[in-house]
Amino acid sequence: MGDSTRGHATNLQRSGGGAKGFTLTELLVVIAIIALLMAILMPSLNLARKQARSAGCKMNMHSWGLIWDIYCEDNNGLFPDSLSAQYSWPRGTWIVALRDKWDTRSDILRCPSAVKRPPNTPEWGSSKYSYIMGQTSDGAEPEECSYGANCWIYNFRAGVTTIQWRPTAYNWRSKSIRQAYRIPIFGDALWRGGGPAEAGMHGDPAAYKDEWNGYDYEMQHFCIDRHNGFVNQLFMDWSARTVGLKELWTLKWHRQFNTRGYYTKGGGIEPSQWPQWMRRFKDY
Fold first, then answer.
1. pTM of structure
2. Among candidate residues 190, 194, 187, 175, the one with its CA nearest the CA of residue 236
3. How does pLDDT run across 249-269, given as a tens digit for each residue?
4. 90-94 long-range contacts, Cβ below 8 Å, gap at least 24?
5. Does the structure show a pLDDT above 90 at 2?
6. Which terminus of the chain, N or C, has fewer Cβ atoms within 10 Å?
7. What is the pLDDT of residue 137?
8. What is the spatial order of strands in the sheet that 147-150 belongs to?
9. CB-CB contact of 172 with 105 (8 Å)
């Protein structure tokens, strides 16, 4: 038996013995292959993650559509009066007016792509950060949000001719409007709300991505690169859809808004006339 055992051992030695470990060269090759696969897959994974966040944002818009619809049904079809003392300010009216309908679901105040406050804590937000609503007249804690309302939707009392700079004759006031599918009422934003006009400080895009020029640079509140050249908007027919950044100028923000104005193909703008950060986006 001893001779047999020794012969078996000798055969194992001749054939290389038991399990053989990886050489350093083989380990480096495996690591290189893994790194290459990660480099190939990461852009796809990042894109899938962004698309999932955009889809979650659009689901939020559908929820807000139900909330706005219920509010209007409870108030004879009218939107809130933005100068009511209980609402505290003209731009953030919606946060108080709709509170009893979102209060137990405060997560829908924020787009999944903009759920955190910026590290340097300015009051406003950006494409990837939320803003701070501020103290409201109802005494509630300041909310963190990343959506805002079209300020042209609001109702007003008799004798009020302007709200901030906006002529009240242009306001929609009621949800009972023809071609409501063209009218944005709520969506991705870096501030409480805005009242875009066609051009000038009320309607110009930002000179660079996430630029903040002040509360009255109205279109800049909505023209933010939150979803790779797109934002999500809720419309007055309670539909929600993704809107191209340059498409924002073709929407019917108020009764007299020119949807073929300067910042549209119909208005004659050339791609080179857009700010550099917007030139790669689709034209409308």
1. 0.83
2. 175
3. 999 999 999 999 999 999 999
4. 90/151, 90/154, 90/163, 90/164, 90/193, 91/148, 91/149, 91/151, 91/191, 91/192, 91/193, 91/194, 91/215, 92/133, 92/134, 92/136, 92/192, 92/193, 93/149, 93/154, 93/193, 94/149, 94/186, 94/193
5. no
6. N
7. 62
8. 193-194, 147-150, 184-188, 230-235, 240-244
9. no
Comparing C-alpha atoms, which of 120, 119, 116 is closest to residue 131? 116
Nearest CA to 150 out of 78, 74, 91 is that of 91
